[in-house]
Every structure is written in structure tokens, then in C-alpha cells.
């Protein structure tokens, strides 16, 4: 099965010859896991009228902006430049982009990054311009930090998390300095931020957006968007999930999805490097696996048991237990796949009594919902 690395190694058509597509958006979304804040200066928000006018003028000038992919090949930064669950693949991606005739002349600019443990915030965004023809605004997915994953879990019970607010501010601030035609996207949490920013940004900015790309990203709590925002996002959105998607089926969406083949199984299908590529498109399948629908139903019913206060207590207990386990980051739990729940139960034993009680009860509730869904599935088969 061909993947995005094969795509970069073999598809040499320029964007003038083959227009920007969803596969290109996935490639650039993954590059957002490169910490370009090591190389690029932080973007500035132009809040004054004069500043906004200067930004628009800059976007129209023919001079070169930002840096190319080859400019990121700085070995002195490699030790802490790559993040996410597959940092070595991200490093290989950077070299492939620098060599690709399709991508190597793109320029990166408007780098923004916020990491605040106290506020449970992990946010980063980067824009990629092709001449003055179009720009892709990419939002970084979750890194391996407990802070980044805590913010993800907060999305399940909070109407707004700091990264979503930052995404809107970023898009509104960057747009005046970018080519008129915009694409917006991201993978996982980055896809959620892309959708939120596109729905909530200045209407003048939204009018410039050609497509919004969401790659196996979680959805939103009910009532997050008004009718006009939902309709606008649904019109722009291209949503992709792997056959055994878990993350991409969480919460609600304003638009349907396309299902992509993956060379991995289970939760590891979340890795975009496993997604099948066919020419300038994804290798599609007819629908989700039954396991993905099972997990979606279980988690939806499980979350519905709790109000906001109870959900916050569970998330607090979860992360207290993980820290008490001695794990350095969230990836140490994810790598065990189906055994993760057992590890969390063991971690809870090292926590204080209150944390242990909350987490043990929540795990019990989850197991109960899974058993109920399995029984219901067997009953349906017997009909």
C-alpha cells in the first residue's frame, strides 16, 4: 500500500499542473508536528488599522516571504524539533518535502506556538504559501505531553478550550498576510482546531477559504455552533477517517466522512503514515469497521452518564494517576493499546484514595457500557 512518503517520492507535478488536494493537506498537516518555532520568528498580530493595511500590502508584494523546507534542515535543532507519536517519521517527512518538486518551493511563515502547563494549553500553527496563488493554514495535532492530551480530554466537557480560541485568533491574524485563496486543515486535534477556526473566524476571512480538511479529528459538543456557522462549515469541510477510527468518531460533526484504508490496525490507524494513497487521492473503503462503530457507541453512552463537574473530576483523576505512575509522557500509555485500561487501573493504585475511587468507578462504568453494547449487538444478530 502506497503512503504519503511514496506520494512525495513519486508525484512530481507542480500545483499549476495538478491543483492542491486532500493528500497535500494531510502532508502539510503532519509537517505541523515539526517545531518550526525553533527556526522561524513568532508571528505578530496586527491589531491596528495601519498594521492591518501593512499586512495586506505585504501579502500582495512579489518578494519572497518565510522559509522553504530546505531551510528547516538544521541538524543543531533536531534533538527537540520533532514531536507527536511518530517523531522519526516526521523527520523523514521533512527531508522528503525538501526534495519534492511539488512542495520544495512552498514557503512557511506565520509561526505560532503556545505551551502553558498551568492553563493546560498546547497550540501551534503554521502557514504554507505557494507564490501568491494560495496558502494552507495548518494546525498542529497533539504532542506527547500530558498538557496537550489533558486539553484534548477537556474538549469532552468544556464548551471552549484555550487552543480553539487561539486557532480563531491565529486565522484572523494570519489571513491578511497570506494569498487570497486559503485552505485550512489539520490532523487529530489539529483538525478540530481547523474546523473551529473556520466556523468562528471573521466572515471576510471565511469567504476566502476554499476547503477545510479534517483528518481523523474529534468533533464538538452539541450546540458549539449556531445554524449559520454549522451550514458554512459543512459546505467547506472534507472529513477523512481510517476504517477503524476512534478519535475521529468522537462527539458531533456538521458533515459526513470519507473512509480511508490503512496498513495498521486498531488505534494505530490514527497514524497518517499508514493511510493508503492512490495517485493524488486516498485509497478509499466502503465504510467503517464494526469495531469503530462499537467504540463510538460505547464512549458516547459512557460520556452521557456525567455532567460537566463529574467529567472534570474523572479527567483530573485520570491525569493524577498517570503522573503517579512515573510515566514521562502520554505516549508511554498509548503504546500498550488495549492494555491501557489495565495500566490505568494499576496506576490508580499508586494515587490517593479520592483519585483511586473516582477513576475505578469511571473504568467500571466504561466496562459496563461495553458489556451492554456487546449484549445489544448479539441480540440484534439473533433477530
From TrEMBL:
Q: Which Pfam families is this protein grouped with?
A: Mbeg1-like
Which SUPFAM superfamilies has this protein been placed in?
alpha/beta-Hydrolases
Q: What is this protein called?
A: DUF2974 domain-containing protein
Q: Which domain of life does the UniProt lineage start with?
A: Bacteria
InterPro entries named in the record: AB_hydrolase_fold, Mbeg1-like
Amino acid at each position: 500500500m502506497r503512503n504519503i512518503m511514496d506520494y512525495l517520492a513519486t508525484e512530481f507535478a507542480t500545483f499549476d499542473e495538478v491543483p492542491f488536494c486532500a493528500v497535500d493537506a494531510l502532508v502539510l498537516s503532519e509537517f505541523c508536528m515539526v517545531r518550526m518555532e525553533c527556526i522561524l520568528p513568532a508571528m505578530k498580530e496586527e491589531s491596528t488599522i495601519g498594521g492591518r493595511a501593512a499586512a495586506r500590502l505585504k501579502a500582495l508584494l512579489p518578494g519572497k516571504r518565510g522559509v522553504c523546507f530546505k531551510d528547516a534542515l538544521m541538524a543543531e535543532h533536531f534533538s527537540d524539533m520533532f514531536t507527536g507519536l511518530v517523531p522519526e517519521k516526521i523527520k523523514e517527512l521533512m527531508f522528503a518535502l525538501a526534495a519534492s518538486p511539488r512542495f520544495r518551493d512552498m514557503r512557511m511563515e506565520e509561526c505560532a506556538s503556545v505551551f502553558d502547563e498551568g492553563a493546560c494549553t498546547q497550540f501551534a500553527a503554521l502557514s504554507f504559501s505557494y507564490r501568491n496563488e494560495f496558502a494552507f493554514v495548518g494546525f498542529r495535532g497533539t504532542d506527547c505531553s500530558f498538557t496537550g492530551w489533558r486539553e484534548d480530554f477537556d474538549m469532552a466537557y468544556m464548551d471552549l478550550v484555550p487552543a480553539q480560541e487561539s486557532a480563531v485568533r491565529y486565522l484572523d491574524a494570519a489571513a491578511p498576510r497570506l494569498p487570497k485563496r486559503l485552505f485550512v486543515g489539520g490532523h487529530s486535534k489539529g483538525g478540530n482546531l481547523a474546523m473551529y477556526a473556520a466556523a468562528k473566524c471573521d466572515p471576510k476571512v471565511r469567504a476566502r477559504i476554499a476547503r477545510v480538511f479534517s483528518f481523523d479529528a474529534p468533533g464538538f459538543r452539541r450546540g458549539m455552533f449556531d445554524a449559520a456557522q454549522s451550514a458554512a462549515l459543512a459546505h467547506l469541510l472534507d472529513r477523512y477517517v481510517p476504517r477503524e477510527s476512534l478519535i475521529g468518531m468522537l462527539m458531533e460533526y456538521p458533515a459526513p466522512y470519507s473512509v480511508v484504508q490503512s496498513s495498521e490496525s486498531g488505534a494505530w490507524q490514527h497514524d497518517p503514515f499508514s493511510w493508503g494513497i492512490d495517485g493524488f487521492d486516498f485509497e478509499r473503503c466502503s465504510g467503517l469497521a464494526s469495531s469503530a462503530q462499537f467504540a463510538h457507541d460505547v464512549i458516547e453512552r459512557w460520556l452521557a452518564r456525567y455532567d460537566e463537574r463529574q467529567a472534570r473530576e474523572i479527567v483530573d483523576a485520570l491525569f493524577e494517576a498517570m503522573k503517579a505512575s512515573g510515566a514521562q509522557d502520554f505516549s508511554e500509555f498509548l503504546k500498550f493499546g488495549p492494555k491501557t485500561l489495565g495500566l490505568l487501573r494499576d496506576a490508580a493504585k499508586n494515587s490517593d484514595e479520592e483519585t483511586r475511587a473516582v477513576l475505578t468507578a469511571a473504568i467500571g462504568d466504561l466496562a459496563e457500557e461495553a458489556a451492554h453494547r456487546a449484549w445489544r449487538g448479539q441480540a440484534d444478530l439473533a433477530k
